[in-house]
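Issue 218. Parser rejects a valid record. Input:
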Amino acid sequence: MSKVNAVHHINFVVRELAPQVEYLRTLLQSEPIIEDLPKRYVKSARFLLSGVWIVLVEPTSTEGEVARILAERGEGLFLLSLSVDSLDESIEKLSQQGIYLDNKGKRQGLDNWTVQDLDCPKALGPVLQLCQLISK
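Output the parser choked on:
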């Protein structure tokens, strides 16, 4: 069975990307990958730290999921993505154990990531997500 084997990425929603990028650039001594993602109504900056992506996301519009999350929850941690070898196997096994998916379905993440959000308890805070790397 495919099981969770690592943290793949951690997303933070921010109102303004630039000052947070500078902070993490200094803290991590690393250069980010900065991308405009117009279909998602966001700009992002990704830092790789020991195999885990730390992602800053700034909404570029009042439309979209990230803008909704910022309006409802404010800035900060909003998503924890957990790596699995097989998304389909993990989804099937977890659903048999009472852990269900959200209603958005599987989708293409950045680069070669396929992701699926979970329907998780609000008490945990951020969205929990499964992530599978797909060979290019």
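Fixed in the parser; the record now loads. The helical segments are 17-28, 65-73, 87-96.
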